[in-house]
Every structure is written in C-alpha cells, then in structure tokens.
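User: Quick sanity check before I run a bigger batch. Here is a single chain. Can you write out its predicted 3D structure?
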Amino acid sequence: MLKGEFPVIGISTEIDIPERIAVKKKYVDAVVQAGGIPFLIPFTDDMQVLWSVVSLVDALLLTGGGDISPSLYGEIPLSQCSGICEKRDEFDYALLRFACKQQIPVLGICRGMQLINTYFGGTLYQDLPEQFPSDVLHKSQDTSVVSQHSIHCRVDSELYRMLGKKEVMISSIHHQAVRKLADGFKATAFADDGVVEAIESVAVNNVWGVQFHPELQAVEGDEAMKGIFGYFIRRAKDMLL
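Assistant: Done. Predicted structure follows.
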C-alpha cells in the first residue's frame, strides 16, 4: 500500500496527445508544495484496475483539459466546442464515481469542476461568448496569456475557509461554465458577471470544484491559492487517521 505519513493524491491524466498519458506539471508541484504525494492515475478503460487504483489514494484531483461532451447533459455540441474526448469523459466519470464510493475528498479544477457538475446532473454553457456574453474575460484569445479577474466568495462556504478572504484575483482559462447547478450542490463563488466560479457539495462530504486554476498561482507563492491545496491536503490527511 502507498499509505504513509503523507496523504497520497490521485491526479487524473490527459490523453490529448496520441500514445501519451500526461498531466501538467504545476498540478503536481502544487500538491507537493502542500504536503501531498502526487500519484498520476494512468488512463485505462479497465474498471477493475481503476477501482484498485482509487483504493490506493487518499484524495482525487480532477484536472483541466478539453470540453466535456454535451451529450452527457443531453445537448448537441455547438461548433465552438473543442477537444472533446469521450474516452476521457468516461475515465474521469469512473474516477469520480469510485472516489465517492470510497468517500475520499475530491477537488475538481476547471474541466474537473464542470465534470463534477455534469456527473451529478447539472449542465454547462457550451460557450460563454456565444451563450453568456459579458465584459469579463474568462479566456484570453492569446493562448500564451492567462486571463485574470476577480471573484467574490460566499462567507458561508468551505472555499472561504480555504482562501481566508471574500475577494481574490484568479487565473482563468475557460470558455465553458456551470449553467444549471447540480442538485445537492451550492455555488460558492462568482465572477462579476455572475458566472459560477466554485461549487461544493451539500449532499456528499468533501467534494469541491473551482472553475479557475489555483495551481498556477499557488506554485508562485500566492497564499490564498496555496490555501486551497493546503485545505484539500489536510482533508486528505484525515483519511489516514
């Protein structure tokens, strides 16, 4: 077993590049910085293997990536949808299902939050500029630039306890967002235009999602963003007790 003094954090992987399984390094760095042991969960469609892997970890981090197939929430894809990979959707859904059965903490980042919302019955704006235009720049047209904007956090939320403040600047790289919130969840942070920036479960313990990318700022020393990973790792550490 991998169990030990430090919690093991399972990190979902991407399969965007043919013949490769990968994850962006800053997810790993943020977990290590917060005191967790990162464990990359390799893509497989063998459910027995996945169940065995999830049983080894103390928490699950669902990472960002391409768009989730709108068919999962009963819609036909718009032309603006990109990077859809149904095999990855199935893989991430299985990870989330097994993590909930194991009752371990789950943190979804960007696509990860959207995946949590759709898994539990919610829907998404497939493209914010098309379906919810606003003055807030959620994704820069220049792929080399990460958009930043402020969000406002509910004080009656676990996110507020993670961040330690009501308003923060976040790193934003998304063109989709929560439309209908899943039953059993509450929205805990919002952009100035009302777009949901964080959710947490009120029906299942220790399931959270953030629409932004805290790992980008956490590894650069941002204390509020480090607080998200610190809180997540502490909850994972509770699984060792």
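The first helix runs from residue 25 to 33.

User: Great, the batch can go ahead then.
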